[in-house]
């Protein structure tokens, strides 16, 4: 999946993945998973309302997103003015405890993001095809502090194609072999996942995990 695919989706407003409200899984699992953390990385963050929610919980929040349109929209929609700073291959939009780095997640370094002790992944891993998911799981720990903790929310279903892509519990264990993986919850997500259903899925599970870097 090329960057242009996502840039075009943002230009054309094809952002059905976006939710106006904080994600219920984040609100539910935050105390256990991210409560003890300070600096939370949100890879492939879009213009997620979850960024704002995490700031209100007292975190430093670091988003990484390909589309500058998305980063600008996050602040514009809240009538907030952010500082815009060129940071090498990235552009940082910064206001208070939130920075959104516009650029390719796979080019992000800990010098840019700081070492984060928390990660929140909703619709990031599952946005990526097979080969990029392996790269994502390998790159993520390079941006993390020792003992970092992550809340990972995936979709698991029985159809081909994507995004969102199917990520099974087995794949989560395989990809994140450097982490202790604890399943937190599994919900029936058929009503919230029109894509997989239209591709023929007979079940769709939304699975939440706690990942702890070993
Ligand atoms: C399915 S959306 C999810 C956005 C957000 N996590 C949410 O819950 O609303 C995936 C996002 O990843 C971004 N993206 C895709 N590939 C990326 C990459 N290599 N680096 C940074 N962002 C990327 C896309 O522009 C898109 O906004």
Helix-strand layout with pairing:
Layout: H1 3-12, H2 24-33, E1 39-43, H3 49-56, E2 60-65, H4 68-76, E3 83-87, E4 90-95, E5 98-102, H5 110-113, E6 116-122, H6 130-139, E7 144-157, H7 169-175, E8 179-188, H8 194-198, E9 204-213
What does this structure look like?
29% of the residues lie in helices and 32% in strands. With 214 residues, it is an alpha/beta fold. The protein has a nine-stranded mixed β-sheet, with helices on both faces. The mean pLDDT is 97.
Class in CATH? Alpha Beta
Portion of residues within helices: 25-40%
β-strand percent reads 25-35%
Mean pLDDT: 97
- Give the number of helices: 8
Number of strands: 9
Any low-confidence stretches, pLDDT <50, length ≥5?
none
Q: Structural class of the secondary elements?
A: alpha/beta
Reported CATH architecture: 3-Layer(aba) Sandwich
Q: How many domains, in number, for the residues? A: 1
Bound small molecules, deduplicated: S-adenosylmethionine
Order of helices and strands: HHEHEHEEEHEHEHEHE
Largest sheet, in brief, is: 9 strands, mixed
Question: How would you briefly describe this protein structure?
Answer:
With 214 residues, the chain is α/β, with parallel strands linked by helices. Helix content is 29%, strand content 32%. The chain has a single domain (3-8, 23-213), classed as Vaccinia Virus protein VP39 (Rossmann fold, 3-Layer(aba) Sandwich).
């Amino acid at each position: 999946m090329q960057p242009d695919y996502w840039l075009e989706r943002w230009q054309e407003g094809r952002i059905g993945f976006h939710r106006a409200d904080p994600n219920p899984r984040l609100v539910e699992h935050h105390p256990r998973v991210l409560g003890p953390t300070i600096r939370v990385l949100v890879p492939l963050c879009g213009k997620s309302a979850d960024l704002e929610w995490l700031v209100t919980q007292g975190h430093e929040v670091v988003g990484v997103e390909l589309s500058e349109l998305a980063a600008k929209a996050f602040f514009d929609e809240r009538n907030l003015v952010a500082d815009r700073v060129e940071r090498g291959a990235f552009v940082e939009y910064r206001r208070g405890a939130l920075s959104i780095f516009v650029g390719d997640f796979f080019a992000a370094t800990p010098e840019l993001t700081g070492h984060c002790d928390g990660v929140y992944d909703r619709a990031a891993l599952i946005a990526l095809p097979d080969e990029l998911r392996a790269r994502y799981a390998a790159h993520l720990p390079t941006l993390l502090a020792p003992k970092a903790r992550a809340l990972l929310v995936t979709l698991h279903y029985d159809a081909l194609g994507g995004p969102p892509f199917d990520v099974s519990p087995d794949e989560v264990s395989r990809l994140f072999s450097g982490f202790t993986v604890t399943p937190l919850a599994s919900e029936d997500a058929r009503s919230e996942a029109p894509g997989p259903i239209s591709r023929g899925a007979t079940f769709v599970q939304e699975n939440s995990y706690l990942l702890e870097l070993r």
